[in-house]
Amino acid sequence: MLKENSIILVFTVVVFLIIILVSSTPMFLKILLALNAVALLFPIVRKTLLANKGRKIKVAFYTSLIFTVLFYLLAILSDNNLTLEVIPFLVIVLFFSLVGNFAYGLPVSIIAELTSNKFLNYRSLISGFIHIGFGLGTFFIEPEFFIPASVCSIIFFALDEKTSRTK
User: Fold this and answer.
1) Residue 138 · residue 145 · CB < 8 Å
2) CB of 160 within 8 A of CB of 59?
3) What is the pLDDT of residues 37-85, one digit of tens each?
4) Helices 27-39 & 106-116, crossing angle to 10 degrees?
5) Handedness of CA 46, 159, 148, 73 (dihedral sign)
6) Which segments of the chain have a pLDDT < 50?
7) What is the reported pLDDT for 131?
8) What is the rounded distance in angstroms from the CA atom of residue 123 to the CA atom of residue 105?
């Protein structure tokens, strides 16, 4: 798990964990961020995360952008009198979707990939079930994020499948 040249990684994770511990972040988010930080200590997680030129990181970013654009289009369809006042709200939507996709979506995607690669005949089906299942599972964690998380999980799965087939 650890090598002599990974002292910087360990030091960074420890500092990050201390910052999380003393912050006023909600407990659920503290646990999620701490688990993500500790997961980076394992080479299989780093290898999966950075495979294919950081494909999973790009997918998480593109998922957030697509979700924000869809949110904006939905807002336009529901109210034709939108002005530039909605732009700051869209920046907030983009920020929270980025946080959600990087803190929750990326680990779920790594779990889905590591699990589904063991079942090559049903890889896509199992991966989709895991992605969408965790998106739907947010209902039990934070019910107000249930619909956005479910939409993001579907977008994340679709982009992940598309980019994994074009590597």
Assistant:
1) yes
2) yes
3) 888 888 888 888 888 888 899 999 999 999 999 988 888 777 766 666 7
4) 50
5) positive
6) none
7) 92
8) 18
Name the residue among 89, 111, 94 with its Cα closest to residue 157: 111
For residue 51 the two structure tokens come to: 């495979």
Residues 6 or more apart whose CB falls under 8 angstroms from that of 160 comprise 56, 59, 109, 112, 113, 127, 131
The C-alpha atoms of residue 161 and residue 156 are separated, in whole angstroms, by 9
Q: Is 101 in contact with 64 (CB distance < 8 Å)? A: yes
Q: What is the pLDDT of residue 129?
A: 93
- Do the Cβ atoms of 136 and 150 come closer than 8 Å? yes
Q: Residues 6 or more apart from 120 whose CB is under 8 A from it?
A: none
Q: What token pair was written down for 48? A: 């999966």
State the greatest distance between any 2 C-alpha atoms of the chain, in Å, as a whole number. 60
Q: How far apart (Å, rounded) are the C-alpha atoms in residues 81 and 37?
A: 43
